[in-house]
Amino acid sequence: MTTMSGDKGKGPIFDPGLCRCCGAMKRCRLLNAEYQCMGQKEVYSDMFMDCFGLLLSHLDGKPSSRLVCAMCVSRLREAASFRAQVLRCEAAFLQLRMCRDEDDDQQARLEASAKLEVEVKAEPMEYVGDDPDDLPGDSGDTGDIGDTGDIGDTGDIEPPAERVKKATVAKDVDDIPLARRKRPRTPTADRSRPEPPVKQTLPMSKVQQLMRERDPSYMIDTNVVTVVECSYVCPFKCRHNHLLCYYCGDNFSDPTLLRQHTISQHHPKKFKVIEHKKMIKMDLTRIDCRLCNTKINDMETFKQHITSVHNKKYYFASKDLILPFRLTLNDQKCALCDETFPYFHALNKHMNKHFSNYVCETCGLGFVDKGRFVMHQQRHEEGDFPCETCGKIFKAQYNRDLHIDRVHNKRGRVFCPKCDVKLMSYTQKLKHLVEVHGEQPLSFSCNMCEKVFGTRRTLTIHRRKDHLKDYRYECQYCGQKFFTRFALNNHMPTHTGERNFKCKVCEKTYPRLKTLKDHMRIHTNDRRYRCHVCGQAFIQNCSLKGHMKSQHSEYG
């Protein structure tokens, strides 16, 4: 097991290791070590406890018994993200619910207080003037009270409770000094008393909006929709080097025709964010405001315009999901750094430098979206990936799939930018562009010598190998250095004596795969090396060289 220490505070990496979560031998990390992802620290064992309540065992033992692979970490992150989303919505719901309960309690207290005040201040008796002789129940006039309590008149008998209440009120009135006695309030006077506050409840639409705004993805998607609906930007998709209409999928080779089609055939109100958390490609050749026809060429100016002039809601604190382009028919230029590219595919790949939303923790390369990131990560997932057809073993799944398509399925994986033809290699694509589409062949000149190359890759290899002498692979036995790992592996049998490549026909063994392949031509009688003088053919190149020395030395 090989342990590698990561950079920038990253935890240790074990390659290969047995994942505790899926049981596969892959590149793994420690469950209880601290790692970093997108600027956030994470400990996977703690994330398992938070998300699922699982207390993993044997986390204090050997490192080999507490490993987790990158694929399981990715699934765990998704679970943690969903948990965080649920908690945010639950917190918003409880907060709004508490506000409503407090309003209900306050309203109930006010109603109870108002009711109690009305009962205490109720005065059923009526009198006029301030003369004490006019008060009912006075010793000088007892007939009025006696009339109300006539036993013979049973229809006017009041309930005992009412009589007790009136007697209590009358007694209290007798105790009030004459100067403080006032006429009871009339119904008109009662209206001057402040009414209890009316219960204020938030409409359900407002409650839903507050809950939605607690989700960052909602604010991000809302920003994109606002930009599309209020401007003339042109959202689009791409398939290799072809531009597709975002709404209907029609194919366009000219960006101008794509913009005209989008404006005339599709209303911006029908725009919807299809894939959340994925950046949307937009052509910003024309921005302008749809609401007032103001000419605007800068996206930041447009955002300020729609918020200040048209009172549109825009969440400036949220991250934009817009991947900006300014496209013309013959000029594929980056909208951020003005670098020009021959094809849109190259420009689209260049955008990874500006928007590194997903960073490979192995090599540090950044990628715009998750799809590109996952494809790249497959190249680092080293292990044993055998070809089911021929049994050849590959160290990466990507290389195994590439081998199957090219060798067994005879299916190309390199697309032509001008048509839908698939080529087997990048070199074949360049040749196809020259021969079929009449393009000028590309040339890359070395700035250190006069050599010219047909591809950028061959130029890079030339610089590293011939000028920089970048021989980074060293033999641990003799110290000899090699330019590639493949060359080092071919050199190692000279020290180890290993002969791992065996012929299935005659069972001879060879130290190198190339030597075995050359030998197999003996059994198939593949005489590919032909003498240009006499026409005699040979199986191996060394046989042809020997023939030229002995028979045609004058041509040597």
- For the record, give the distance between the C-alpha atoms at the N and C termini, rounded to a whole number: 53 Å
Counting DSSP E segments of at least 2 residues, the number of strands comes to 27
Portion in strands? 15-25%
How many individual helices? 18
The overall pLDDT average reads: 77
What would you call the structural class?
alpha+beta
Question: Quick one: overall form?
Answer: flat
Radius of gyration: 43 Å
Please give the share of residues in helix: 25-40%
Order of strands side by side in the largest beta sheet?
9-8-7-10-11-12-13
**Residue windows where pLDDT falls under 50 for at least 5 positions:** 1-9, 125-157, 164-173, 178-182
Could you give a short account of the major beta sheet?
A: 7 strands, mixed
Give a structural overview.
There is one protein chain. The chain has 556 residues and is α+β, with helices and mostly antiparallel strands. Among the domains are: 84 residues, no CATH class; 116 residues, no CATH class; 92 residues, Double Stranded RNA Binding Domain; 83 residues, Double Stranded RNA Binding Domain (2-Layer Sandwich). The strands form 10 sheets. It has a 7-stranded mixed sheet.
